[in-house]
Design a protein that fits this description.
Layout lengths: L1 E5 L4 H13 L3 E5 L7 H6 L7 E3 L5 E3 L1 H13 L12 H35 L11 H24 L10 H15 L9 H11 L5 H4 L18
Helix pairs in contact: 1-3, 1-6, 4-5, 4-6, 5-7
């Protein structure tokens, strides 16, 4: 069985977990506390970031973007309508554009600071960068969520899914990031019904169930986190 090195509240790891499930493939999950900089893990990915995907034969693919491309090239070609990266070049560009939007822009403005300040710092030693959360970073991230929700609503007003008529990597990446922020209770769903309706569609898919069962030790999720009806 393939192996996925991940962290439960890493949005990039969650994205690949969703991708694998939607494609119908399983992988053994190995949790990595990236701040510990485990030597064996750094040998797999010198950048020290999750996720990292390893095939049965030991072939290793680090990073959410390369893993998604690799899975499409090796497993997506025969899946027909279940393929998560469209065949048309213009459609593929749009999916990749939105992947960058969520895995880079959304992550940098929202997910990464919230998870670092509210979760990771709880487990990190002082020499690893741990300590009390920086409240200004948390306030900024919470503020940034709102215009990303409006953008999701704008996209879904024009399309069936974020990048077009079919479910794609774009939807799974966006949902992975929002699921982390939702765990922490920092998504103002009441402010945007359209974005909430789109997320409910994703949240109700079987691939999402393992994510909804994830728990951070000593930190319960928001009350509606695993409620499919919010």
């Amino acid at each position: 069985m393939a192996i996925l090195h991940h962290y439960p509240l890493c949005p990039h790891s969650r994205f690949i977990r969703l991708v694998l499930s939607e494609l119908g493939f399983e992988a053994e999950l190995i949790e990595e506390r990236v701040w510990e900089r485990r030597r064996e893990f750094l040998e797999l990915n010198p950048a020290g970031t999750t996720p990292v995907f390893r095939e049965d034969n030991g072939f290793t693919v680090p990073g959410a973007g390369p893993i998604a491309e690799y899975l499409d090239e090796t497993r997506g070609l025969g899946l027909g309508e279940r393929r998560l990266l469209p065949e048309g070049p213009a459609e593929r560009v749009e999916v990749r554009r939105l992947l960058d939007w969520f895995n880079l822009k959304f992550d940098g403005e929202i997910t990464s600071p919230l998870v670092l300040e509210k979760v990771m710092k709880r487990f990190m030693g002082r020499d690893e960068g741990g300590g009390p959360p920086e409240m200004s970073a948390i306030r900024a991230a919470r503020s940034n969520v709102r215009y990303h929700l409006r953008y999701i609503a704008w996209l879904t007003a024009k399309r069936n899914w974020l990048a077009g008529s079919e479910l794609s990597y774009a939807d799974l990446a966006a949902a992975a990031h929002l699921s982390c922020v939702d765990y922490l209770g920092d998504v103002p769903w009441e402010e945007d019904e359209a974005a909430r309706a789109w997320y409910a569609r994703i949240k109700s898919r079987p691939s999402f169930r393992p994510l909804l069962s994830d728990r951070v030790p000593g930190m319960a999720p928001s009350a509606h986190y695993d409620n499919l009806d919010f």
